[in-house]
Specification:
heterotrimer, A alpha/beta (324), B mainly alpha (322), C alpha/beta (379), A: 324 residues, alpha/beta, 8-stranded mixed sheet, 4-stranded antiparallel sheet, C: 379 residues, 34% helix
Amino acid sequence: MSEAILKVDNLKKYFPIKGGLLQKVVGHVKAVDGISFEVKPGSTFGLVGESGCGKTTVGRTLLRLHENNGGSVIFDNKDIFKLNSKELRNIRPEIQLIFQDPYSSLSPKMPVGEIIGEAVREHKLVPEAELRGYVMQVMRECGLQDHHIDRYPHEFSGGQRQRICIARAIALKPKVVVCDEPVSALDVSIQAQVINLLMDLQKDRNISYVFISHDLSVVEHISDEVGVMYLGNLVEKAPKTEIFKNPMHPYTKALFSAIPTPDPTVKMNRIVLQGDIPSPANPPSGCKFHTRCRECMEVCKTTAPQYKNHGNDHFVACHLYDKK
Amino acid sequence: MAKDINLEKVVTPGQLVRKRFLRNKLAIVGVFILLGMFLFSFVGPVFSPYGEYTMFYFTAEGEEFSSEDTKGYDPAGSGVTIANKQFPSRTHLLGTDKDGRDIFTRLMYGGRISLTIGFVVVFFQITLGVTLGGIAGYFGGKVDNLIMRLVDVIYCLPTLPIMLIISSLLIAYSIPQTQKIYWLTLVMGLMGWASVARLVRGQILSLREQEFMVATEATGIHPIKRIVKHLVPNVMPQLIVVATMGMGSVILTEAAYSYLGIGVPFPFASWGNMVNVVSDTIILREYIFMWLPPGLCILVTVLGFNFVGDGLRDAFDPKMKR
Amino acid sequence: MARKTAEQREAVKKMREIAKSNKAVMKKYETEKKRKNVPASEYQTTMKNPNNILEIDNLHTYFYTDMGIVRSVNGVNIEIPQGKTVALVGESGCGKSVTSLSIMKLVRGPSGQITNGEIRYNRPGGAIDIVKTPIKEMQTIRGNEISMIFQEPMTSLNPVFRIGAQIDEAIKLHRPDVKKDDVKKQTIKMLELVGIARAEGVYSCFPHELSGGMRQRVMIAMSLCCNPKMIIADEPTTALDVTIQAQVLELLRDLKDKIDASILLITHDLGVVAEMADYVVVMYAGRIVEQGTSHEVFLNPKHPYTIGLIKSKPVVNQVVDRLYSIPGSVPNPVHLPNHCYFKDRCDKADGRCNSGIPELRNIDDEHKVACHLYKEGNK
């Protein structure tokens, strides 16, 4: 087993809520409240959760686009929150981000070649004379054609734009790529193309992915390990086959059962969760999920459950499994 | 039938903007008005037979001569009268004013001053506004707070009284009237950048949250490059619109000040101080040719700028029109 | 570079031509629309099958843009039987939303126009053709007999009015039979119907105080308050989270039995379709490529596009090494080819596929496919 390239330990990110006349801080939105995971070289960690659970914040905090409020992110044996701004800029190429919306993530006034090549030039990854050739080579690798290099983003379809985003990230020869819902804005037939592209690139270049998505079927397809987030916490984390075969946390179970299957003969045995996700500014006491949990016990309302290994690298935070 | 080309691939965004602009008839009218006004004010004087301050006189025999071409007569000689308040004629297309100057010629020179002031003031406003608004929007936090409070202060200052005070200060310290134009420009520039700064800040604040800006940060691009290469080009369309509309309002303000006698001082011509003659009730009633043309010039020019500005806004952002 | 400028000049010229011809066409349709006092006989019609609530026949909706004519809906035939759910599936830009807007006559003019076809609606007082119905008459149908649920529950509610006031207004407008004093009672009844527990509280809430799922429930309540005969649900769950989506789907299914209305469900999510729909219509580039009962289409898909769509979505607990993906992308809607639109992306294409656009053919009583690979009545 090789050493992890990215180690996230008890990462926390709180956003202050300002209120009153003087804009005093009156509280915090605990967007990420102590999560830990590791990503090994060439593997994919899938992060699943509903909107507002903090998964996008995790992605951005991993890149130190937000400052953290505790915990550490060790990338390649360096704690990225201890780097100064110059060191940070130098390490940026190695950990990249791919966005959900392929429309707002490309600068509309720049040709594609410049979008992809700008940062390569900035970091002097290839000599200036070879830049254009290098950009073309990366574009070809991502399924774009050479003549696209002088076109502008508005001339491309959503799927092609997402390829440009991927090319921009890949051109910097990253070791880790954080994919923030990279396919949820795309059509189904294009989704499959982009997922296949991501998996091919991983095989060729031994990249690690942190794959953030709300789409469980996509996460199952691409990930090696899956973490389920609820209100800023990981409630369950296990290798893919383990978690899909044997989901333990009641939230994970409900989430899995809610996925519609494209087969009319399958009668859904669905666990419909009652109510909505509580506000992260004012999370429930004890186990944050107890307000919607079907198997809620008295202890759940008062004490937060421990996040424990239940064998087979299967981590769960739930009181149901405490007795064993 | 042209050969089958994929329009979406060929047509650039610039072309689309141009096309939408050209379809707007009012905007085209505006362009022609402005073009006409520029030719009239900047090229016109070259062909004009008279100068800005040329005064006209009549000899006792009724022959007309001017201060530039005295034809051997002495303006201070006996029996010589000033050829003022003349009705429009062949030699004076719009007549002469109460000091015996040719109104048509002064209209051209007045336009030159009004338009130049407009340009300089707007340039000043935009430069200041973009710099300060850009800094406020990009860096945020305390800097933003400071600059925006400054903007609030500027908004509170009443421009008109300030102009009045400056005007009397200039007189008190006996600063030459010729310098008054520079003071006017300076004050109008300093008072007007606040709205530009607000606009730019707002734009940059929303652009900064766009994912492509996050991407430039994630790829480790230097902050200065991020502002110049990514933010500024995206604010350009709004700036062009604001600048065009601003021209109109600056010309209007200048005219108002000049009318009140605190703007462009009298020996110089400006549309505003040419309209000023209406304070004389006789002129108001009897000599319509003296104040209507400059008034119309102001109206038409400001309208032109507003038409073009509206057209540009709709062309840049077709959704606004809905 | 020189080639490019020549091309550009060509483009400018062509755009001018397009704009000119568009203007003429749009004017023609707009004057037609503005006609006053259209006699009722002009838009009365008869249903082909009296059991249908809506029959769309050869519908064409075009958008006259600067880039050329976009054939968004290009000859679509759909029948919606009384009390059944019909799902319209397809990817973005395939014309599914435009079809629904055409039914409501809400296509954005002057560039968007219904150029051909009939939409027969089985009104209680006698069937009418919606295409020819004047706007004034349509206003009594919209939101009243046919109502719509939109994708974005955030933007479809007015943020400055309380929830209760907005539903009250809809009831007052469309239900003259409800007495003034009973309006509030009716609103609360509607809110309870869509499973909102504290209906009284929600009645005096502003939209921003509710979560996405709650807002979608409110939207549904609003669309139900006039006892519609038909509901058009345009991507009702796309903006919602999985667990909330499950709640809303559950609700819609419950309601369908309670109110006996037909639903036209527009979505790109095949999973949602499989759960909800009785009939499925698959659209591609403005045309129907396959249509049939939900069972037939999912278990026995015929058109290569439908097959590809079903295969390209990973399914939980079915591990595949590599996802099947349909190569290429949707053809440009301005320059549609004159062979099967799917040919260039199809892995089963052969010589036959060059011979014209395939017609929709019956391969079974309940199953139609538009593909050259299948013959009439041939399984």
